[in-house]
């Protein structure tokens, strides 16, 4: 045992010592009475190991290992909680009888500000009983917290990598046809990023694959475009296809105070779709 304000010597003796168990945290609590003063402290935790002492029986010569713990005992001071209230009441009575006009006004004001806790609690309970619970659908408020917000429609039960994303769900059939007709006779491949070029060059792409290549290329460029550029009225996300440009701006930006902006979640979404 260690004491907060001193060290125990060989002549140390306590009048009374008790050991209790704290049901909340499982620790042992030690109390000791010394010179009419009560000391108490909890057993200190030893996360990295345990402490043992070796005890030898002088008669049999056998030894035992005994687990021990340490505790820091602090004096327990008795506090009379009623004293401040008594002093405050006496002060108010003196101010009422013998105080100046200003002191009497201050005393009256303080009494008016006093709150009966029980009365207020009862009033609040009466108010809350009359309140009904309205269940709201908050799913739309947390869209950006879901994986489905960032990625295209995905088949989580697919057994092959090529079946994970269904290209028929990325764009509609009418959108594929219209976008491809807008891309015809245009040199869209010249603006491919190195990543898209490495995938598309030297391969015979179908009409839909061509549309998706331009779509992914436009999203990659869109995700690295400065935010102030996206906010301009004349900003175009895809110069080769007005339809694709409208799709990108509708799905990867929002209108704020009449101005088109691209918050960070929408920037990340564009990169994931690409």
Q: Could you please describe the fold and organization of this structure?
A:
GO terms for molecular function: DNA binding. Belongs to the eukaryotic RPA49/POLR1E RNA polymerase subunit family. InterPro entries: RNA_pol-assoc_fac_A49-like. Its main location: nucleus. Keywords: Coiled coil, DNA-directed RNA polymerase, Nucleus, Transcription. The protein has 274 residues and is α+β, with helices and mostly antiparallel strands. It has two domains: 74 residues, no CATH class; 131 residues, no CATH class. The chain contains eleven helices and nine strands. The strands form three sheets. Strands 1-7-4-3-2 form a five-stranded mixed beta sheet, with no helix packed on it. α6 packs across α8. The longest helix has 17 residues. The protein starts with a strand and ends with a helix. The mean pLDDT is 78.
Question: What structural keywords apply?
Answer:
274 residues, 2 domains, five-stranded mixed sheet, 9 strands, 40% helix, DNA binding
């Amino acid at each position: 045992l260690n004491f907060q304000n001193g060290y125990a010597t060989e002549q140390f003796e306590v009048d009374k010592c008790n050991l209790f168990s704290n049901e909340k945290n499982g620790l042992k609590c030690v109390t000791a009475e010394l010179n009419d003063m009560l000391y108490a402290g909890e057993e200190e935790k030893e996360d990295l190991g345990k402490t043992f002492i070796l005890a030898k029986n002088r008669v049999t010569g056998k030894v035992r290992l005994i687990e021990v713990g340490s505790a820091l005992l602090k004096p327990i001071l008795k506090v009379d909680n009623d004293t401040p209230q008594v002093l405050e009441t006496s002060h108010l009575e003196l101010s009422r009888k013998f105080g100046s006009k200003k002191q009497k006004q201050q005393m009256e004001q303080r009494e008016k500000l006093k709150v009966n806790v029980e009365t207020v609690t009862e009033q609040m309970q009466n108010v809350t009983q009359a309140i009904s619970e309205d269940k709201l659908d908050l799913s739309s408020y947390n869209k950006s917290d879901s994986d489905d917000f960032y990625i295209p429609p995905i088949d989580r039960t697919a057994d092959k990598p090529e079946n994970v994303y269904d290209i028929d769900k990325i764009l509609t059939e009418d959108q594929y046809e219209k976008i491809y007709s807008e891309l015809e006779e245009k040199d869209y491949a010249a603006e491919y990023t190195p990543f898209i070029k490495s995938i598309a060059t030297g391969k015979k792409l179908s009409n839909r694959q061509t549309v998706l290549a331009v779509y992914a290329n436009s999203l990659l460029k869109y995700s690295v475009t400065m935010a102030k550029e996206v906010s301009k009225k004349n900003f175009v996300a895809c110069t080769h296809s007005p339809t694709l440009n409208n799709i990108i701006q509708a799905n990867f930006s929002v209108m704020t105070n009449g101005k088109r902006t691209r918050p960070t979640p929408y920037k990340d979404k564009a990169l994931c779709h690409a």
